[in-house]
Amino acid sequence: ESGRSKSHLYSQKEQTKELLKTRILWKEKIEAALADKRLCLHFQPILDIKTNQISHAEALVRMIDLDGEIIMPNSFIPIAEQSGLINQIDLAVLQLAFETLRFLQTQNNPLKLSINLSGKAFNNTLLISTLKEGLKQQDIDAKKLIIEVTETTAVANINTAVNLMNDIKETGAKFALDDFGVGYASFFYLRQLPVDYIKIDGSFIQTLEKHKEDQVFVKAVSEISQLSGLKTIAEFVENQTILDLLASYNIDYAQGYHIAKPSATLPNNKLILSH
Ligand code: C2E
Ligand code: CA
Ligand code: CA
Ligand code: CA
């Protein structure tokens, strides 16, 4: 008996040790990537449903491993958030976004760019000042930038968040509320947050044609958004049936594998769907 439980305890301890080791390894991997500037952005086109043109792109961060392998954010963002490295990632993403906006301007590409900031962004004073200063610079068109925040980011300290958002919006930049619908009090906070876009969470969109409840929800979000002067974006649009449904609900924008997967190259605003 006692032997068995001892070995059980031992293996649990070993497991915890292994987990800790992996976490430390990942932390070192992220630190090295930050130091070597091995973070990059991939871009996923966003379709303006009414004009059938690509109007926006979402920037999604990737880490390039020493062997060239591309590491997806779900593998390193959670560890970065736990270890405090997320502040540096947010800053790196912002710098890359500024470079991208400058590049778009030199190409006369009217594409708007959205970026993701972490839940820690509103407490990161260096990030906020870099953001405000950067957006005021001549060579960046602040109106082309959309900052995606989740409800959790904004609601943790709602008064601070609202003040910062209003401050940043004075430069012309816009905000989007990401992952809308999976939070705990979505409509309540929507009234208070100075956002310009609502991104309906992909879990409502992916199976839209099959679930009546999702259809009712998406339609309601569309109607409320229209009343409030907000633009709606549906993510995870994976087939034409879903895109047609969204169009019938007057959703403004669509993003997902049916339109395009994220890629290293920036889209131009040519027509891409010919249905
Ligand atoms: P998110 O902001 O909700 O981004 C959407 C994710 O869904 C992306 O994954 C995208 O590639 C994927 N996706 C797009 N279309 C479809 C589709 O039709 N079907 C399905 N099944 N998936 C689709 P990715 O790039 O792996 O990003 C995952 C998450 O990592 C993001 O979720 C976001 O929370 C976080 N993230 C990405 N980039 C950044 C960043 O620069 N900074 C921070 N802090 N977080 C980021
Ligand atoms: Ca996003
Ligand atoms: Ca999302
Ligand atoms: Ca998500």
Automatic annotation (TrEMBL):
Residues 23-275 form the EAL domain. GO terms for molecular function: cyclic-guanylate-specific phosphodiesterase activity. Coiled coil: none annotated. This is Signal transduction protein containing a membrane domain, an EAL and a GGDEF domain. The chain holds residues 539 to 813 of 813 of the full protein.
